[in-house]
Specification:
By secondary structure, this protein is of the alpha+beta class. Helices cover 25% and strands 27% of the residues. The structure holds zinc ion.
Protein backbone atom coordinates (compact mmCIF):
# COMPACT_ATOMS: atom_id res chain seq x y z
CA UNK A 1 0.00 0.00 0.00
CA UNK A 2 1.38 3.42 -0.91
CA UNK A 3 1.45 6.28 1.55
CA UNK A 4 -1.25 8.02 -0.42
CA UNK A 5 -3.44 4.93 -0.33
CA UNK A 6 -3.01 4.65 3.45
CA UNK A 7 -3.90 8.32 3.82
CA UNK A 8 -6.98 7.99 1.70
CA UNK A 9 -8.08 4.81 3.56
CA UNK A 10 -7.86 6.65 6.87
CA UNK A 11 -9.87 9.57 5.46
CA UNK A 12 -12.52 7.18 4.20
CA UNK A 13 -12.62 5.62 7.69
CA UNK A 14 -13.30 9.07 9.11
CA UNK A 15 -16.08 9.55 6.59
CA UNK A 16 -17.63 6.21 7.53
CA UNK A 17 -17.42 6.99 11.25
CA UNK A 18 -19.35 10.24 10.97
CA UNK A 19 -21.41 10.09 7.79
CA UNK A 20 -23.78 7.85 5.86
CA UNK A 21 -23.92 7.65 2.05
CA UNK A 22 -26.71 10.20 1.70
CA UNK A 23 -26.51 13.98 1.25
CA UNK A 24 -28.02 16.29 3.83
CA UNK A 25 -29.44 19.52 2.45
CA UNK A 26 -29.81 22.05 5.24
CA UNK A 27 -32.31 24.68 4.12
CA UNK A 28 -32.48 28.09 5.75
CA UNK A 29 -33.64 31.61 5.12
CA UNK A 30 -31.05 34.34 4.85
CA UNK A 31 -32.57 37.69 5.71
CA UNK A 32 -31.12 41.15 6.10
CA UNK A 33 -30.28 44.54 4.69
CA UNK A 34 -27.13 46.56 4.03
CA UNK A 35 -26.22 46.66 7.72
CA UNK A 36 -27.40 43.42 9.32
CA UNK A 37 -28.14 39.82 8.41
CA UNK A 38 -29.89 36.88 10.02
CA UNK A 39 -30.30 33.18 9.38
CA UNK A 40 -33.31 31.02 10.20
CA UNK A 41 -33.57 27.23 9.98
CA UNK A 42 -36.10 25.84 7.51
CA UNK A 43 -35.65 22.08 7.14
CA UNK A 44 -33.27 19.22 6.43
CA UNK A 45 -33.87 16.95 3.46
CA UNK A 46 -32.24 13.81 2.15
CA UNK A 47 -30.84 15.05 -1.14
CA UNK A 48 -29.90 11.66 -2.54
CA UNK A 49 -26.58 9.87 -2.79
CA UNK A 50 -23.46 11.77 -1.63
CA UNK A 51 -21.62 12.79 -4.81
CA UNK A 52 -18.67 14.61 -3.22
CA UNK A 53 -15.32 13.16 -2.28
CA UNK A 54 -15.23 10.85 0.74
CA UNK A 55 -11.56 11.52 1.35
CA UNK A 56 -11.21 15.28 0.81
CA UNK A 57 -13.75 16.63 3.26
CA UNK A 58 -12.02 19.86 4.23
CA UNK A 59 -11.93 22.84 1.87
CA UNK A 60 -8.43 24.30 2.18
CA UNK A 61 -8.94 26.70 -0.74
CA UNK A 62 -11.37 28.82 1.32
CA UNK A 63 -12.80 30.68 -1.68
CA UNK A 64 -16.17 32.44 -1.75
CA UNK A 65 -17.85 35.20 0.22
CA UNK A 66 -19.24 32.66 2.71
CA UNK A 67 -17.85 29.49 4.21
CA UNK A 68 -19.39 26.78 6.36
CA UNK A 69 -18.09 23.94 8.44
CA UNK A 70 -19.60 20.87 10.09
CA UNK A 71 -18.14 20.04 13.49
CA UNK A 72 -18.32 17.24 16.02
CA UNK A 73 -19.91 19.08 19.00
CA UNK A 74 -18.02 16.87 21.49
CA UNK A 75 -14.50 17.40 20.19
CA UNK A 76 -14.87 20.51 18.03
CA UNK A 77 -13.19 18.63 15.18
CA UNK A 78 -14.07 19.97 11.72
CA UNK A 79 -15.57 17.08 9.73
CA UNK A 80 -16.50 18.89 6.54
CA UNK A 81 -16.16 22.42 5.15
CA UNK A 82 -16.84 24.33 1.95
CA UNK A 83 -16.69 27.90 0.61
CA UNK A 84 -19.59 29.34 -1.36
CA UNK A 85 -21.24 32.53 -2.54
CA UNK A 86 -24.89 33.45 -2.73
CA UNK A 87 -27.46 35.71 -4.31
CA UNK A 88 -27.84 37.33 -0.90
CA UNK A 89 -24.11 38.13 -0.88
CA UNK A 90 -24.50 40.08 -4.12
CA UNK A 91 -27.87 41.61 -3.26
CA UNK A 92 -26.66 43.12 0.03
CA UNK A 93 -24.27 45.35 -1.96
CA UNK A 94 -27.07 46.78 -4.17
CA UNK A 95 -28.95 50.05 -3.50
CA UNK A 96 -32.12 48.03 -2.74
CA UNK A 97 -30.47 46.66 0.43
CA UNK A 98 -30.06 50.20 1.75
CA UNK A 99 -33.81 50.80 1.65
CA UNK A 100 -35.32 47.38 2.12
CA UNK A 101 -34.99 44.05 3.83
CA UNK A 102 -34.44 41.05 1.59
CA UNK A 103 -35.19 37.38 2.18
CA UNK A 104 -33.44 34.58 0.29
CA UNK A 105 -33.73 30.83 0.57
CA UNK A 106 -30.39 28.99 0.62
CA UNK A 107 -29.04 25.47 1.17
CA UNK A 108 -25.87 23.90 2.50
CA UNK A 109 -25.10 20.37 1.33
CA UNK A 110 -22.86 17.95 3.18
CA UNK A 111 -22.80 14.20 3.90
CA UNK A 112 -25.68 13.02 6.12
CA UNK A 113 -24.29 12.91 9.68
CA UNK A 114 -24.83 9.81 11.83
CA UNK A 115 -25.00 11.91 15.00
CA UNK A 116 -25.60 15.52 15.95
CA UNK A 117 -23.22 18.02 14.40
CA UNK A 118 -22.78 21.77 14.63
CA UNK A 119 -23.01 23.67 11.35
CA UNK A 120 -21.43 27.13 11.36
CA UNK A 121 -21.57 29.78 8.63
CA UNK A 122 -18.79 32.36 8.32
CA UNK A 123 -18.68 35.53 6.25
CA UNK A 124 -15.68 37.10 4.54
CA UNK A 125 -14.42 40.21 6.36
CA UNK A 126 -12.45 43.14 4.92
CA UNK A 127 -9.18 41.55 6.03
CA UNK A 128 -10.10 38.48 3.97
CA UNK A 129 -10.63 36.34 7.06
CA UNK A 130 -14.00 34.81 7.97
CA UNK A 131 -16.28 35.93 10.83
CA UNK A 132 -18.81 33.60 12.40
CA UNK A 133 -22.37 34.63 11.46
CA UNK A 134 -24.53 31.62 12.39
CA UNK A 135 -24.29 28.29 14.18
CA UNK A 136 -26.98 25.65 14.10
CA UNK A 137 -27.03 22.32 15.90
CA UNK A 138 -28.09 19.71 13.35
CA UNK A 139 -29.87 16.72 14.78
CA UNK A 140 -30.35 14.17 11.99
CA UNK A 141 -33.31 12.75 13.96
CA UNK A 142 -35.06 16.13 14.15
CA UNK A 143 -38.78 16.04 13.33
CA UNK A 144 -38.08 18.37 10.39
CA UNK A 145 -35.40 16.15 8.91
CA UNK A 146 -36.85 14.36 5.89
CA UNK A 147 -34.79 11.21 6.02
CA UNK A 148 -36.37 9.52 3.02
CA UNK A 149 -35.02 10.62 -0.34
CA UNK A 150 -37.44 12.41 -2.64
CA UNK A 151 -39.57 10.58 -5.15
CA UNK A 152 -37.87 11.28 -8.41
CA UNK A 153 -40.61 12.13 -10.88
CA UNK A 154 -38.22 13.86 -13.31
CA UNK A 155 -37.00 12.40 -16.59
CA UNK A 156 -33.23 12.30 -16.47
CA UNK A 157 -30.55 11.30 -18.95
CA UNK A 158 -26.77 10.85 -18.88
CA UNK A 159 -24.57 12.99 -21.12
CA UNK A 160 -21.26 11.55 -19.99
CA UNK A 161 -20.67 9.27 -17.00
CA UNK A 162 -17.10 8.25 -16.26
CA UNK A 163 -17.23 6.68 -12.83
CA UNK A 164 -18.64 6.63 -9.29
CA UNK A 165 -19.97 10.05 -8.14
CA UNK A 166 -17.59 10.28 -5.17
CA UNK A 167 -14.60 10.04 -7.53
CA UNK A 168 -15.98 12.39 -10.16
CA UNK A 169 -16.92 15.99 -10.66
CA UNK A 170 -20.69 15.65 -11.09
CA UNK A 171 -22.53 18.33 -13.02
CA UNK A 172 -26.29 18.48 -13.46
CA UNK A 173 -27.76 20.30 -16.46
CA UNK A 174 -31.25 21.76 -16.08
CA UNK A 175 -33.31 23.37 -18.82
CA UNK A 176 -35.30 26.57 -18.35
CA UNK A 177 -37.92 27.79 -20.79
CA UNK A 178 -38.10 24.50 -22.72
CA UNK A 179 -41.65 23.44 -23.48
CA UNK A 180 -42.51 19.73 -23.69
CA UNK A 181 -42.02 19.80 -27.45
CA UNK A 182 -38.56 21.37 -26.93
CA UNK A 183 -37.14 18.34 -25.11
CA UNK A 184 -35.29 17.13 -28.20
CA UNK A 185 -33.67 20.54 -28.41
CA UNK A 186 -32.84 20.41 -24.70
CA UNK A 187 -30.98 17.15 -25.28
CA UNK A 188 -28.96 18.72 -28.08
CA UNK A 189 -28.24 21.88 -26.08
CA UNK A 190 -27.21 19.89 -22.98
CA UNK A 191 -24.91 17.77 -25.13
CA UNK A 192 -23.34 20.85 -26.63
CA UNK A 193 -22.78 22.30 -23.17
CA UNK A 194 -20.96 19.10 -22.13
CA UNK A 195 -18.90 19.04 -25.32
CA UNK A 196 -17.88 22.69 -25.11
CA UNK A 197 -16.97 22.51 -21.44
CA UNK A 198 -14.96 19.31 -21.76
CA UNK A 199 -13.06 20.54 -24.79
CA UNK A 200 -11.88 23.69 -22.94
CA UNK A 201 -8.66 23.49 -20.90
CA UNK A 202 -8.10 22.50 -18.18
CA UNK A 203 -11.37 20.53 -18.24
CA UNK A 204 -10.23 18.83 -21.47
CA UNK A 205 -7.12 17.31 -19.87
CA UNK A 206 -9.25 15.98 -16.99
CA UNK A 207 -12.35 15.03 -18.90
CA UNK A 208 -12.37 11.45 -17.64
CA UNK A 209 -12.97 12.92 -14.17
CA UNK A 210 -16.30 14.49 -15.16
CA UNK A 211 -19.80 13.07 -15.19
CA UNK A 212 -22.60 15.21 -16.60
CA UNK A 213 -26.28 14.31 -16.32
CA UNK A 214 -29.39 16.21 -17.32
CA UNK A 215 -32.84 16.62 -15.79
CA UNK A 216 -35.90 17.60 -17.81
CA UNK A 217 -37.98 20.41 -16.35
CA UNK A 218 -40.51 21.24 -19.07
CA UNK A 219 -42.37 24.56 -19.05
CA UNK A 220 -45.80 25.46 -20.47
CA UNK A 221 -44.16 27.78 -23.02
CA UNK A 222 -40.76 28.27 -24.67
CA UNK A 223 -38.49 31.10 -23.50
CA UNK A 224 -37.60 32.81 -20.26
CA UNK A 225 -39.05 35.82 -18.43
CA UNK A 226 -37.71 39.27 -19.47
CA UNK A 227 -39.16 42.08 -17.39
CA UNK A 228 -37.06 44.73 -19.20
CA UNK A 229 -38.24 43.70 -22.67
CA UNK A 230 -41.82 43.33 -21.47
CA UNK A 231 -41.81 39.60 -22.22
CA UNK A 232 -43.57 37.80 -19.39
CA UNK A 233 -43.66 34.07 -18.96
CA UNK A 234 -43.45 31.49 -16.17
CA UNK A 235 -41.10 28.54 -16.45
CA UNK A 236 -40.34 25.55 -14.24
CA UNK A 237 -37.44 26.99 -12.24
CA UNK A 238 -38.58 30.66 -12.20
CA UNK A 239 -35.27 31.85 -13.65
CA UNK A 240 -35.61 35.40 -14.92
CA UNK A 241 -33.52 38.00 -16.69
CA UNK A 242 -33.27 41.37 -14.98
CA UNK A 243 -31.76 40.19 -11.69
CA UNK A 244 -30.87 43.21 -9.52
CA UNK A 245 -32.57 45.27 -12.25
CA UNK A 246 -29.71 44.43 -14.62
CA UNK A 247 -31.09 43.56 -18.04
CA UNK A 248 -28.71 40.71 -18.97
CA UNK A 249 -28.28 39.16 -15.55
CA UNK A 250 -30.38 36.02 -15.19
CA UNK A 251 -30.94 34.29 -11.85
CA UNK A 252 -33.46 31.96 -10.27
CA UNK A 253 -34.52 32.85 -6.74
CA UNK A 254 -36.62 29.72 -6.21
CA UNK A 255 -33.84 27.78 -4.50
CA UNK A 256 -35.99 24.86 -3.36
CA UNK A 257 -37.34 24.12 -6.82
CA UNK A 258 -33.89 24.34 -8.43
CA UNK A 259 -32.37 22.14 -5.70
CA UNK A 260 -35.16 19.56 -5.88
CA UNK A 261 -34.74 19.25 -9.65
CA UNK A 262 -30.93 19.11 -9.41
CA UNK A 263 -31.09 16.30 -6.85
CA UNK A 264 -32.81 14.00 -9.35
CA UNK A 265 -29.22 12.95 -10.21
CA UNK A 266 -25.99 12.95 -8.15
CA UNK A 267 -24.56 16.48 -8.45
CA UNK A 268 -22.12 19.04 -7.10
CA UNK A 269 -22.43 21.73 -9.77
CA UNK A 270 -25.48 23.00 -11.67
CA UNK A 271 -25.82 24.47 -15.15
CA UNK A 272 -29.19 25.97 -16.07
CA UNK A 273 -29.52 26.36 -19.84
CA UNK A 274 -32.00 29.03 -20.86
CA UNK A 275 -33.90 28.36 -24.06
CA UNK A 276 -33.67 31.98 -25.10
CA UNK A 277 -31.91 34.10 -27.69
CA UNK A 278 -31.26 37.18 -25.56
CA UNK A 279 -27.60 37.34 -24.57
CA UNK A 280 -27.34 36.82 -20.83
CA UNK A 281 -26.60 34.58 -17.90
CA UNK A 282 -24.97 34.45 -14.51
CA UNK A 283 -22.69 32.29 -12.40
CA UNK A 284 -22.31 32.10 -8.61
CA UNK A 285 -19.68 30.09 -6.79
CA UNK A 286 -21.08 26.73 -5.67
CA UNK A 287 -24.65 27.75 -6.57
CA UNK A 288 -25.31 27.48 -10.33
CA UNK A 289 -24.85 29.06 -13.73
CA UNK A 290 -27.49 30.34 -16.10
CA UNK A 291 -26.68 30.79 -19.80
CA UNK A 292 -28.76 31.65 -22.87
CA UNK A 293 -28.33 28.99 -25.54
CA UNK A 294 -29.92 30.48 -28.67
CA UNK A 295 -27.21 33.05 -29.11
CA UNK A 296 -23.93 33.35 -31.02
CA UNK A 297 -22.09 33.59 -27.69
CA UNK A 298 -23.60 30.53 -26.05
CA UNK A 299 -20.24 28.72 -25.85
CA UNK A 300 -18.58 31.73 -24.28
CA UNK A 301 -21.45 32.08 -21.79
CA UNK A 302 -21.28 28.37 -20.80
CA UNK A 303 -17.57 28.49 -20.07
CA UNK A 304 -17.27 32.01 -18.62
CA UNK A 305 -20.17 31.53 -16.20
CA UNK A 306 -18.94 28.07 -15.29
CA UNK A 307 -15.60 29.66 -14.31
CA UNK A 308 -17.46 31.76 -11.70
CA UNK A 309 -19.54 28.85 -10.46
CA UNK A 310 -16.87 26.15 -10.33
CA UNK A 311 -13.71 27.94 -9.22
CA UNK A 312 -14.93 31.31 -7.94
CA UNK A 313 -13.04 33.03 -10.75
CA UNK A 314 -13.33 36.80 -10.72
CA UNK A 315 -14.31 38.74 -13.80
CA UNK A 316 -11.08 40.05 -15.26
CA UNK A 317 -12.78 42.78 -17.25
CA UNK A 318 -13.17 46.33 -16.14
CA UNK A 319 -15.35 49.04 -17.52
CA UNK A 320 -13.40 51.72 -19.26
CA UNK A 321 -15.68 54.27 -17.61
CA UNK A 322 -13.61 53.72 -14.48
CA UNK A 323 -10.41 54.68 -16.34
CA UNK A 324 -10.24 58.02 -14.54
CA UNK A 325 -10.59 56.37 -11.16
CA UNK A 326 -8.07 57.26 -8.43
CA UNK A 327 -5.30 54.79 -7.94
CA UNK A 328 -6.67 53.57 -4.64
CA UNK A 329 -5.07 50.93 -2.46
CA UNK A 330 -6.83 47.71 -3.25
CA UNK A 331 -7.29 44.95 -0.79
CA UNK A 332 -5.92 41.72 -2.17
CA UNK A 333 -8.87 39.85 -3.72
CA UNK A 334 -9.38 36.28 -2.52
CA UNK A 335 -10.06 34.97 -6.03
CA UNK A 336 -7.15 33.06 -7.55
CA UNK A 337 -7.10 34.88 -10.92
CA UNK A 338 -6.80 38.54 -9.85
CA UNK A 339 -4.32 40.30 -7.60
CA UNK A 340 -3.25 43.70 -6.28
CA UNK A 341 0.28 42.38 -5.74
CA UNK A 342 2.96 42.77 -8.41
CA UNK A 343 5.91 41.47 -6.37
CA UNK A 344 7.29 38.49 -8.32
CA UNK A 345 8.39 36.85 -5.05
CA UNK A 346 4.94 36.83 -3.49
CA UNK A 347 2.37 37.19 -6.30
CA UNK A 348 -0.22 34.42 -5.94
CA UNK A 349 0.68 32.85 -9.29
CA UNK A 350 4.46 33.21 -8.76
CA UNK A 351 5.01 29.52 -9.57
CA UNK A 352 3.73 30.00 -13.14
CA UNK A 353 5.28 33.38 -14.05
CA UNK A 354 7.12 33.39 -17.38
CA UNK A 355 10.82 34.10 -16.97
CA UNK A 356 12.05 37.55 -18.01
CA UNK A 357 8.62 39.15 -17.81
CA UNK A 358 8.43 42.57 -16.16
CA UNK A 359 5.80 43.07 -13.43
CA UNK A 360 3.55 44.92 -13.99
CA UNK A 361 3.63 43.61 -17.54
CA UNK A 362 3.42 46.20 -20.33
CA UNK A 363 0.48 45.80 -22.71
CA UNK A 364 -1.47 48.00 -25.12
CA UNK A 365 -3.80 49.21 -22.41
CA UNK A 366 -4.36 52.72 -23.77
CA UNK A 367 -5.29 51.42 -27.18
CA UNK A 368 -7.55 48.78 -25.65
CA UNK A 369 -9.29 51.28 -23.36
CA UNK A 370 -9.83 53.80 -26.13
CA UNK A 371 -11.49 51.19 -28.32
CA UNK A 372 -13.56 49.80 -25.43
CA UNK A 373 -14.92 53.25 -24.58
CA UNK A 374 -16.02 53.76 -28.19
CA UNK A 375 -17.63 50.34 -28.30
CA UNK A 376 -19.42 50.93 -25.03
CA UNK A 377 -20.88 54.23 -26.20
CA UNK A 378 -22.14 52.65 -29.38
CA UNK A 379 -23.55 49.70 -27.47
CA UNK A 380 -25.57 51.96 -25.17
CA UNK A 381 -26.96 53.80 -28.21
CA UNK A 382 -27.85 50.55 -29.97
CA UNK A 383 -29.57 49.15 -26.90
CA UNK A 384 -31.54 52.36 -26.52
CA UNK A 385 -32.62 52.10 -30.15
CA UNK A 386 -33.66 48.47 -29.41
CA UNK A 387 -31.84 47.12 -32.44
CA UNK A 388 -32.31 43.48 -33.33
CA UNK A 389 -30.39 40.94 -31.22
CA UNK A 390 -28.66 39.64 -34.37
CA UNK A 391 -27.21 43.10 -35.04
CA UNK A 392 -25.98 43.25 -31.43
CA UNK A 393 -24.37 39.82 -31.90
CA UNK A 394 -22.48 40.97 -34.97
CA UNK A 395 -21.39 44.09 -33.14
CA UNK A 396 -19.98 41.93 -30.31
CA UNK A 397 -18.33 39.59 -32.83
CA UNK A 398 -16.50 42.57 -34.33
CA UNK A 399 -15.37 43.66 -30.87
CA UNK A 400 -14.14 40.13 -30.18
CA UNK A 401 -12.13 40.04 -33.43
CA UNK A 402 -10.59 43.43 -32.64
CA UNK A 403 -9.65 42.30 -29.10
CA UNK A 404 -8.13 39.03 -30.34
CA UNK A 405 -5.98 40.81 -32.87
CA UNK A 406 -4.65 43.38 -30.43
CA UNK A 407 -4.16 41.09 -27.45
CA UNK A 408 -2.46 38.25 -29.32
CA UNK A 409 0.14 40.39 -31.10
CA UNK A 410 1.89 42.12 -28.25
CA UNK A 411 5.40 41.51 -26.97
CA UNK A 412 4.12 39.69 -23.84
CA UNK A 413 0.97 38.18 -25.32
CA UNK A 414 1.92 34.63 -24.39
CA UNK A 415 3.63 35.42 -21.10
CA UNK A 416 2.32 34.93 -17.59
CA UNK A 417 2.84 38.21 -15.77
CA UNK A 418 0.67 40.86 -14.14
CA UNK A 419 -1.44 42.84 -16.62
CA UNK A 420 -3.14 45.88 -15.15
CA UNK A 421 -6.92 46.04 -15.31
CA UNK A 422 -9.10 43.35 -13.69
CA UNK A 423 -12.22 42.77 -11.57
CA UNK A 424 -13.95 46.02 -12.62
CA UNK A 425 -10.88 48.14 -11.78
CA UNK A 426 -8.89 49.81 -14.51
CA UNK A 427 -6.02 50.46 -12.11
CA UNK A 428 -4.48 48.66 -9.16
CA UNK A 429 -5.72 45.15 -9.95
CA UNK A 430 -3.97 42.70 -12.25
CA UNK A 431 -4.69 39.55 -14.26
CA UNK A 432 -2.17 36.86 -15.18
CA UNK A 433 -2.28 37.09 -18.98
CA UNK A 434 -3.12 39.48 -21.77
CA UNK A 435 -6.30 37.61 -22.62
CA UNK A 436 -8.69 35.19 -20.91
CA UNK A 437 -12.32 34.11 -21.19
CA UNK A 438 -12.87 35.97 -17.90
CA UNK A 439 -11.53 39.15 -19.57
CA UNK A 440 -12.92 39.27 -23.12
CA UNK A 441 -15.08 36.86 -25.14
CA UNK A 442 -11.91 34.84 -25.74
CA UNK A 443 -12.31 31.06 -25.85
CA UNK A 444 -9.62 30.04 -23.34
CA UNK A 445 -8.81 30.48 -19.68
CA UNK A 446 -5.56 32.22 -18.73
CA UNK A 447 -2.95 30.20 -16.80
CA UNK A 448 -4.05 31.53 -13.36
CA UNK A 449 -7.67 30.55 -14.10
CA UNK A 450 -6.56 27.12 -15.34
CA UNK A 451 -4.61 26.51 -12.18
CA UNK A 452 -7.59 27.49 -9.99
CA UNK A 453 -9.89 25.15 -11.91
CA UNK A 454 -7.42 22.28 -11.57
CA UNK A 455 -7.30 22.77 -7.79
CA UNK A 456 -11.09 22.43 -7.63
CA UNK A 457 -11.07 19.34 -9.87
CA UNK A 458 -8.63 17.73 -7.42
CA UNK A 459 -10.89 18.60 -4.51
CA UNK A 460 -13.72 16.50 -5.95
CA UNK A 461 -11.87 13.61 -7.50
CA UNK A 462 -9.10 12.50 -5.14
ZN1 LIG B 1 -8.19 34.22 -16.38
Amino acid sequence: MTLLAIFSTSCQAKYDKYFSNATMRLDYNHIGNASEEHFAFDQMVNDGQWAGSKTILIDDLRLGKYFFDVKDPQTGEVLYSRGYSSIYGEWETTPDAKDNWGSFHESLRFPWPKQEVDVTIYKRNIKNGFDLVWTYNVNPNHHRAFRASADNHYNTFDLVVNGAPEKQVDIVVLGEGYAKEDMGKFRKDANRFAEVLLSTEPFASHKEKFSIRAVETPAPHSGVNHPHQDIHTRSALSVTYGAFNSERYALGYDNKTIRNASAAVPYEFTAILMNDSIYGGGGIYNLYITAAVNNAFQEYLFVHEFGHHFADLADEYYTSATAYEMDAQHLEPWELNVTANTDPETIKWKDILTADTPLPTPWEKEKYDKHSIEVQKKRVEMRKAKVDEKIMENFFLDKKAWDEKLLSNMRYSNHVGAFEGAQYKSKGLYRSAANCIMFTRHDQFCPACQRAITLIIDQYTK
